[in-house]
Design brief:
Helix Hairpins; Beta-Lactamase; alpha+beta; five-stranded antiparallel β-sheet; five-stranded mixed β-sheet; 13 helices; 10 strands; single chain
């Protein structure tokens, strides 16, 4: 006994949810595809790039060409068969049109001389045969050797069956030694009464031979095309690989130390873009290595000078030829040189951390105005100690900026320290205001300034403008550290001066959080 139970559609939806069975089917299909194509993938990995191009391109072209040959051959074969059939049908209709009166005379008992005269006037070769029967398929005439000699009534063949329904019948079947023949049967009418059938047949062997020749000609005609396609494939692969091979040779030259090597840019496609990118990489690598060599040389020079000074002082102290005043002075000099070296090493380590990406850049300054004012108060005291005026112009309630408190202090300490160091008399100042999505911080002074053409070089490592700053101590790393730190946060810094002894402006743009 069946019960009508309410269907739980929610549970049914959970069972047959697409996310359940679709994922399962996709996973199984993926595993099967991986199993099928994994050997091919491993094989492709072992082939050269040229072989991969040919293996990918040629099978597609060859299969396409073979399909075109097959389609064209099939169309030619169909058209040839259709023309052959039309030719036989036309001939059968023409002959049948001359037979109604002779057949009527024969059926009335007047003899078959008229039929014999009508058929004897026809010209047939050995490939043509005919059969003439009355409406009951009783044989009246036929071609000698067709096998009808011992028959009184013709078999009910498909072509005669179609002719009996009042239309031209067509059939293909083995005949006369096993060859395929095309049979065309046409009904014969006399005064709108069916009195018989005329069957005309022709061997298909000549047609088959002609079609076979056409297939051979079509295949032979396609071979030069395939050869041209193969040659074109080789040319295309060589064209694609030529810049890649040149790139490989250039890369090997670079590995051997020829950093100035360049790739010729002779094309505007993706390979041309690759050559341009390689040349750009070569230039940048050359600049980086040149900068590193310069950095090492400058660092060695900066370290060698204090070390030489320390060695001379230590030798003098060790010889015990100094009085107490000279000894105290030499010890003070040694302490100063140690401080200088410690500052240099700290700067080098800071740059190394930034270059290696180990400089921590998380955090933000929330109370920007307060932090800037706090930094300014410390430097106001130092400026006054140096006999300088200090001016501050900081907007209140500036928004938070994307830089940590320590890094902001590092940047401003370097900039304000330089401003005081390079200003003998006059003023230094700190200005901060909001401009769009950035907080702009400016440090300015009325000191020695610099040549405007040297503005960009001020941020290079170990660079010092000796024309105006040769009398001032320093290692040339402070501004390089400032720029490197700011770039970690997407901030920028620019330098401006109207010329020597006309002061300097350093402008920092800090992105707002």
């Amino acid at each position: 006994m069946r019960r009508n139970c309410p269907m739980n559609f929610a549970k049914l939806g959970q069972v047959f949810a697409p996310s359940h069975w679709v994922k399962s089917m996709l996973y199984k299909a993926q595993k099967r595809l991986e199993k099928v194509f994994s050997p091919w993938g491993k094989l492709l990995q072992q082939l050269s790039f040229r072989q991969r191009i040919l293996l990918t391109f040629l099978p597609i072209v060859v299969v396409g060409s073979v399909l075109q040959v097959l389609i064209a051959g099939d169309q030619i074969q169909s058209m040839s068969m259709e023309f052959f059939q039309t030719q036989v049908e036309a001939e059968a209709l023409k002959i049948a049109a001359s037979l109604p009166e002779p057949m009527e005379h024969y059926l009335e008992g007047k003899g078959g001389q008229d039929i014999q005269n009508a058929l004897s006037s026809l010209q047939f070769d050995a490939a043509w045969h005919y059969l003439l029967v009355d409406s009951n398929r009783r044989i009246i005439a036929f071609t000698l050797g067709d096998g009808y000699e011992s028959q009184q009534v013709a078999e009910q063949t498909p072509d005669l069956a179609q002719a009996a329904r009042g239309r031209t019948g067509v059939d293909i079947r083995p005949f006369a030694g096993g060859e395929d023949y095309l049979f065309v049967a046409t009904p014969i009418y006399y005064e709108q009464h069916l009195i018989g059938y005329f069957v005309l047949s022709r061997s298909l062997t000549p047609l088959y031979q002609s079609i076979h020749q056409q297939w051979i000609q079509l295949v032979l005609a396609s071979l030069p095309v395939l050869l041209l396609i193969f040659i074109a494939s080789l040319w295309i692969s060589s064209t694609i690989l030529r810049p890649i091979v040149a790139l490989q040779k250039s890369a090997l030259k670079m590995a051997q130390g020829e950093l100035g090597v360049k790739m010729p840019v002779e094309r505007e496609d993706e390979l041309g873009d690759l050559s341009k990118a390689f040349n750009h990489m070569s230039e940048q690598l050359d600049k980086i290595l040149t900068a590193q060599r310069s950095f090492v040389n400058n660092a060695a020079h900066e370290l060698r000078n204090p070390l030489m000074t320390m060695r001379l002082r230590l030798d003098a102290i060790a010889n015990q030829t100094l009085d107490e005043g000279q000894k105290a002075q030499y010890i003070a000099d040694l302490q100063q040189e140690v401080s200088h070296m410690a500052e240099l090493v700290t700067s080098l380590l800071t740059l190394a951390r930034i270059d290696e990406g180990r400089h921590v850049t998380n955090g933000a300054v929330e109370e920007t105005s307060t932090v800037l004012s706090d930094i300014g108060r410390n430097w106001r005291i130092r400026a006054q100690q140096a006999g300088l005026s200090y001016e501050a112009e900081i907007e209140e309630l500036l928004p938070a900026v994307t830089i940590s408190d320590n890094d902001l202090r590092l940047v401003l300490n370097n900039l304000l320290g330089n401003a005081i160091k390079y200003t003998q008399q006059g003023k230094v100042g700190l200005k901060a205001y909001l401009e769009g999505d950035n907080v702009v911080v400016q440090v300015w002074d009325t000191g020695v300034g610099f040549n405007p053409t040297e503005a960009e070089r001020l941020f290079e490592r170990f660079y010092r403008d000796e024309s105006v700053r040769h009398d001032y101590e320093g290692n040339g790393l402070g501004l390089a550290i400032v720029k490197a730190v700011l770039e970690q946060y997407g901030a920028t810094i620019t330098a401006y001066s109207e010329g020597e002894q006309r002061g300097a402006w350093f402008t920092v743009h800090l992105p707002v959080v």
